[in-house]
What does this fold into?
Amino acid sequence: MPLLYEPFDPARDLDEAVRILCYAFAGEPDGVKDWISNAGFANLRVVRDGAAPVATLLRVPMGQFFGGRSVPMVGVAGVGVSPVARGRGVARTLMTESLREMRRDGVPISALYPATSTLYRRVGYEYAGLHLEHRLPVSRFRPARDTQPVRPFTQSDLPALKACYTATAMPCDGALDRGDYIWNRVFNPRSGPCAGFVIDELSPDACGPDGIGAYVFFRQERDPVMGRHDIECSDLVAASPRAARQLLGFLGEFGSMANDLVIRAGAIHPLFALCDEPRGLRTIFREYWMLRIVDLAAALTARGYSSWLSTSLDLDVRDETLPENAGRWRLRVEGGRGTVERGGDGTLRCDIRGLASMYAGFMTPRAHAVLGLVEGNDPALAVAAAVFGSNSAGFCDFF
Ligand SMILES: CC(C)(COP(=O)(O)OP(=O)(O)OC[C@H]1O[C@@H](n2cnc3c(N)ncnc32)[C@H](O)[C@@H]1OP(=O)(O)O)[C@@H](O)C(=O)NCCC(=O)NCCS
It folds into this structure.
């Protein structure tokens, strides 16, 4: 019986899909049902072997900022294959068909957190950034001694909160342009609901006179033996230096009972960089995230570039899974925008995986060349470095 990739049909597939996801992620049926219904049944896909589903995949629509522009992106989560259907190419079919569907839908890029990289590399994803856990003793933040500017978050703050996030995320390559699924994870991470606090921004040149200048969402995780706790942040954002100082001072007020402030981010969290005394900072590797260029022309034209750059880059790309991306392309960059056409002399040769990693600025193009992810002469690698930059993008969100 051929494997069939199809939309999820709740009336037919719910019980079996929940069983597959429970085995895949060691979940409880009720929790899994809540997860997929909150994510939207319309975003779930299955692979059938005959009538019954043998695999699941959840699409998480959002965007990702590159070069100051939001590129439409589909995050992939909930990849699971029934324990009795593993080891015969079901996951590869699931991923290949879901990429073909994204391409038909006009999605430029896709990202995911891999439980195993082999599967995703086979279909063209490559490491693109870091997801690290940073832990800094709360005592490193000087207490404000006046927390007046800080107030609890209310639902009416939501539009201004999102504007504050966007103002800080947009300049960071790789940061998510969050959709509802990711915002819900900020307010309700898997460990339980978070408390939110905001600081109003009075300066008209930051987020506007009615804006929010900084905010934090966190849970206090208590050590049952010692009674002290960690402050685990699901989001920690400041859009101006004044608001950043006030927010860190507010968190410093928890220092009498709190041990660590914990946040996930890329190689650095910008607010931790404001700390006077970083002694005691511990950074723990959690995950790489991976990127897939689904539609090469759309991905290269949707992102932004340095507005001071005027150049062109000739690519010769291999892509077995989505052959529409393969072959020679010329990217022209001018005034911060890119245009793409077929042709050029293919000076920079790469698999679609190498292009994804370079696009995200995971490493310099020269470092990609050392690993065999791209091939090209020195001038071509230098142009690629100017076009894509290198910032080892990371973000606090997990999906
Ligand atoms: C990981 C999982 C989805 C793989 O499903 P599967 O149908 O057995 O995978 P496939 O047979 O299509 O294998 C595709 C490729 O991935 C590789 N792969 C699959 N499972 C792997 C594992 N556990 N470790 C390393 N590589 C693995 C295979 O070797 C194969 O590569 P190849 O073409 O070089 O042989 C399945 O084991 C599963 O559901 N695991 C639990 C949940 C999970 O980890 N989901 C992924 C979340 S990101």
Notes: The radius of gyration is 22 Å. The chain is about 30% helix and 35% strand. Residues 132-288 form a domain with the Aminopeptidase fold (CATH 3.40.630.30).
